[in-house]
Fold this sequence. Notes:
By secondary structure, the protein is mainly β. The chain is 0% helix and 59% strand. It has strands spanning 2-7, 10-13, 18-26, 33-39, 46-52, 57-59, 67-72, 77-82, 91-99, 102-108, 112-117. The strands form two sheets. Strands 2, 4, 5, 6, 9, 10 and 11 form a seven-stranded mixed beta sheet that branches. A four-stranded antiparallel beta sheet has the order 1-3-8-7, with no helix packed on it. It starts with a strand and ends with a strand.
Amino acid sequence: QVQLVESGGGLAQAGGSLSLSCVASGSILSGNVVGWYRQAPGKQRELVATITSGGTTSYTDSTKGRFTVSRDNAKNTVYLQMNSLKPEDTAVYYCRLSYPQNIFDVYWGQGTQVTVSS
């Protein structure tokens, strides 16, 4: 089992920055992929960014150039640095840990609220 705990959410003004953390604990195997997702009220959960255990990152068009995902494997922590925030970035942000070799081995955190005011 793996437990994920997000932190760092809060209120920011448009154009501001926030940094989220996702700390993993439990039986964490190598080869995992951690993704940041978000869900705004009334909308489906959407992917924001991913990072492999080797550090390969990917972003969606809406966050590329503004958000940066990174990880510290020694601390079992993944970060999401969010810059140039927009009101449309307002959502609950979740981290997700998965293993490409087993699509059923997926873990989610409880989420952290990010609110961006205009």
